[in-house]
Amino acid sequence: MIDVVVSAAVTVVLAWVLGEVLHVFEPLAAALIRSATQLLPSEKAARYRAEWLAEMEAVTGPDIVKVRFALSVTRGAGVMAYEARSTFRVPRRRHRKALAPQREELFAAGFVLFVIAMLLLLNERARREGRPHVVFGSRAMGPGAKWQPDAVIESPGGRSVIEFKTVARPDSDRP
Amino acid sequence: MPRITRETERVLAALFRELGDWRYGLELAKEAGLRSGTLYPILARLEDAGWVESEWERINESAAGRRARRYYRLTGEGERVSREALKQTEAQLASLRPGWGNA
Predict the structure, then answer these.
(1) CATH of the domain at B40
(2) Helices B25-32, B36-48: crossing angle, 10 deg rounding
(3) Is residue B103 part of a domain?
(4) Domain limits of chain A?
(5) Subunit contact A83:B25, Cβ cutoff 8 A
């Protein structure tokens, strides 16, 4: 289990470094801001989009801080939309071009999906390798039964494989 | 009229500190110690109430190499309200320290 946690941490750090190197975070933050301002009434959307994009550029430090800024203003836009009693609406035809995602934003979204896919793969690996006996045992065994190591087989790759057999509890009425 | 919460007071105090000066959002967020997501709804409420005014920075974006920012400052009404709010806070703080008023 620990190796999976370490792998997940390494994946996140690598994604962060790669994101910084490929300058993915700034367009990602811009995309977040663009989508957040769609929540606002049309008379305010353009103003806040321009304002927050300008503010995002002024954010100093690593690019990932810009994503944090964008997430924060997304929350703020939600509050402002609620206060303006506006609901989420599909952009009108004349706004669609202005609000359509740009190429680098699509690239950033693809990068995020890739990272999520990697994390899901790691999670699946953890599920399969880390807890096979628990998952299998809970389905196959009745209450009171326990696993008992039967044999340890050394594979040619040097990895140990432990085989288990089911041992019924003495007072169990199971056959 | 917007409710003066602790966060609103911090924004008013940040704007009050340099009266008459135009300040942009990120600068105010740092000074008030608030996240941008908290600051902007407050600024919008204050602006709707006429306590704060805002205008776009007048720059040539291509020459400056950045987008124009939106700047904020207190209006006359905002200044009056801020002064009162800050005075009230000071009075509340003084009442929380027993012995201070008795000296």
Answers:
(1) 1.10.10.10
(2) 110
(3) no
(4) 2-130, 132-167
(5) no
**Cα–Cα distance for residue pair A114/A126, rounded to 1 Å:** 18
Residue of A nearest to B25 (CA): A55
Q: Could you tell me which chain B residue has the CA closest to the CA of A71?
A: B37
- Structural domain harbouring B64: 6-96
Q: Write the pLDDT tens digit of every residue in A104-145.
A: 777 788 888 888 888 888 878 777 776 544 434 444 455 555
Scanning B26-85 for CB atoms below 8 A from A yields 26, 35-41, 44-45, 66-70
Given a cut of 90, is residue B26 above it in pLDDT? yes
Hey, is the C-beta of A25 within 8 angstroms of any chain B C-beta?
Answer: no
Strand order of the β-sheet with B70-74 is B23-24, B70-74, B52-56
Q: CA-nearest residue of chain A to B70? A: A51
Entry pTM: 0.65
Q: Is A57 on the interface with B (CB under 8 A)?
A: yes
pLDDT beneath 70, residues of chain A: 1, 85-102, 130-175
Average pLDDT, chain B: 88
Determine, yes or no, domain membership for B63.
yes
Query: How high is the ipTM of this complex?
Result: 0.84
Give the count of domains, chain B. 1
Residue A58 and residue B69: Cβ atoms within 8 Å? Answer: yes
User: What b/e string do you get for B19-44 counting C-beta neighbours within 10 Å, with b at 16 or more?
Assistant: eeeebbbbbbbebbebbbbbbbbbbb
A chain contacts of residue B48, beta-carbon cutoff 8 Å:
none
Answer for the pair B20, B73: CB distance below 8 angstroms, yes or no.
yes
